[in-house]
Amino acid sequence: MPGNKPNHKPVSKPARQLLFSEALQHKRLTPTKINPQTSPPLNESTTMPDKDQSTTMDRILQEITTVSRRIEGMDASITSLTLETKSMRSDIAGFQSRVTGLEQRMGSLETQINTSQVREQDFIYLRSKLTDMEDRSRRDNIRILGIPENEEGSDMQTFLTSTLPKMISLDFDPPLEFQRAHRIGPKRSDNSSRPRPIIACLLRHNQTRQILQVARNHGPFRIDQHEIRITADYSKETNERRKAFLALRPRLRKLEMKYGLFDPARMWVTKNGVSKDFYNHDELRLFLDSYQSQPMDSYNTDSEHDIVGGSDRAEPPTRE
């Protein structure tokens, strides 16, 4: 009826979506007409790629390939460095283990060295004590040099008892008595060679000192044109020390120093009333080397030990 509103049924939402999809699909499938007047003409530049662009792309591809190869080489180098680093770490760990072992061994060696030094000091001390004991055991001995072989006959003690007082021009009261007397060394068949020394051990120590005193002051002596010397009897070590001191006598004389070799092996040096003693010949040598730069006036004076006369025949002190 005119004047009445049409009766439209409402469309559901799914139906609206379906209709919209169909319309959109229809529009896509409908070909678009091209207007030749409004559309630009097709040319070679829009349809074919440029040669320069192709060359550039090839160059880029080559560079990419080169970079890729370099990266692969770097990967291999990194892998090699990683392996070397692991090997170095293993070596370092081994070195650390070795260093630890060496430190432990060094500690053990230091302990052994300290122990050896202590033992060496003990050995030196014991050796010096042994030398001193040997020298003391020889304190009653005299050594006689120069008496021809077989001069004593069959009895050495009887020969010395009768010959020694006459030779040194000294009377003994009571008479000389010997505990033992003999030559040392193998017997020599050739009489022209140097005769063997005689070692005689006297019964009384004061007579030993008298004989040595006369021998220092008046020796050497003579028997039938043979030169005879009488000296004290010392151990081998003491004799070597005395010889080392005596070898420095020319230097002492050159420096106009008075000197004396005391019993058993002690050298005293004096000049201008200043004295100094030496128990080791190396110390005396160093002193003589430095004498010009350090005069003896810088040393302390001990008048009790001053030496009279430039001779090595000074009387030795009494051995205790």
From TrEMBL:
Q: Which PANTHER family match?
A: L1 TRANSPOSABLE ELEMENT-RELATED (PTHR11505)
Name the InterPro entries on file.
Answer: Transposase_22
Give the Gene3D superfamilies listed for this entry.
Answer: 1.20.5.340, L1 transposable element, RRM domain (3.30.70.1820)
What is the protein named?
A: L1 transposable element RRM domain-containing protein
Question: Per the record, which residues fall in region Disordered?
Answer: 1-54, 297-320
Biased composition annotated in UniProt, kind: Basic residues: 1-11
* Compositional bias segments (type: Basic and acidic residues): 302-320
Q: Where is the composition biased (Polar residues)?
A: 32-48
Q: Which residues cross the membrane?
A: none
